[in-house]
Amino acid sequence: MKSVLFSRFFILLPWMLIVIIMLDVDTRRPAPPLTPRPYFSPYAGGRWGARLPLRRGGLGRGREQRNESRPPPPLPPEPPLPTIYAITPTYSRPVQKAELTRLANTFRQVAQLHWILVEDASARSELVSRFLARAGLPSTHLHVPTPRRYKRPGLPRATEQRNAGLAWLRQRHGHQRAQPGVLFFADDDNTYSLELFQEMRTTRKVSVWPVGLVGGRRYERPLVENGKVVGWYTGWRADRPFAIDMAGFAVSLQVILSNPKAVFKRRGSQPGMQESDFLKQITTVEELEPKASNCTKVLVWHTRTEKVNLANEPKYHLDTVTIEV
Ligand code: UGA
Ligand code: MN
Whose CA is nearest to atom 23 of ligand 1? Predict the structure, then answer.
């Protein structure tokens, strides 16, 4: 009896081993996903703004969510991505290259951005020319000096430079139907989140959003009711028609072209009124498009770099090398 059992056991043993090995192999292999996972890379596909890992249309659209073998019908071609034109006035000072470096590092991560850098100078400087050549960004380098009589504390800054940027845009797009585009005034010392560019990219006429660290408060913002701007949260000159900083709005290229006379004005302009004076020429408060979750998120900060201490800088060059800072 024992020997029969033994012989049966030895006959079955190889089969049992085969079954055990197969079960083991099967449990080690990862289960195939029900739906193929879309490929997300931090630098891929971020239409409508920064190159963020967000696909246009999200997961609901396209092949990812389907669980069928038949290929889906081809998607209609996407409309061209509006170009963001960032106009940056800049002037020579010890921190200039550091500011421009921070700005370029941000802009480089934004799809379809054209940087219009306008030097407050009578000629293009070598520092900025060299910098732009290596910045790896589509750019235009302009210059115009601020007349000396306007270089005084308390007077608006960068008026001529922003106008030079506007003139360049109008000249470049003057003879053709405007490509979709959005204009934004990006001072060289502010701090910009990548989300901000996603928000402004969909500007139809003029869009607005909060700005952090400005007007003597933690932030200023447009007050929104039922999707419309109805007032301003601000701690400074609340009587301004548009109580908003230069960093708080964007304008579509079409609006810039269809209002060819809209510019920043020196005559009669008071401190802090540049934004209102300009916006009054192209839009009304009722027309403004609130961005950043109905103006409840700060995506840009009016940071200001402190003046550097160069008290120990020698009068004459002492170092053995000359270094650009
Ligand atoms: C605030 C606003 O945020 C600015 O948009 C506005 O132009 C400015 O006030 C004003 O009073 O006109 P604030 O931080 O006081 O900004 O100004 P800055 O950052 O010193 O200057 C704004 C921009 O103009 C910067 O991009 C700066 O590089 C440029 N700038 C400044 C010049 O091109 N030339 C100058 O002499 C001074
Ligand atoms: Mn500033």
Answer: 187
Q: What is the DSSP string of 87-155?
A: EEEE--STTHHHHHHHHHHHHTTBTTEEEEEEESSSS--HHHHHHHHTT-S-EEEEE-PPPGGG-STTS
> For the structural domain made of 83-209+245-293, what CATH number should be given?
3.90.550.10
- pLDDT by residue (tens digit) across 47-60? 555 554 433 433 33
How is the chain split into domains, by residue range?
A: 83-209+245-293
Whether 189 lines ligand 1, by a CB cut-off of 6 Å, is: yes
pLDDT for res 197: 98
Best of 155, 187, 306 to mutate for ligand 1, by most ligand atoms within 8 A of CB? 187
Q: Which residues contribute to the annotated binding site?
A: 89-91, 120, 157, 162, 187-189, 302-304
From atom 8 of ligand 1, which residue's Cα is the shortest distance away?
A: 157
Does the pTM surpass 0.90? The reply is: no
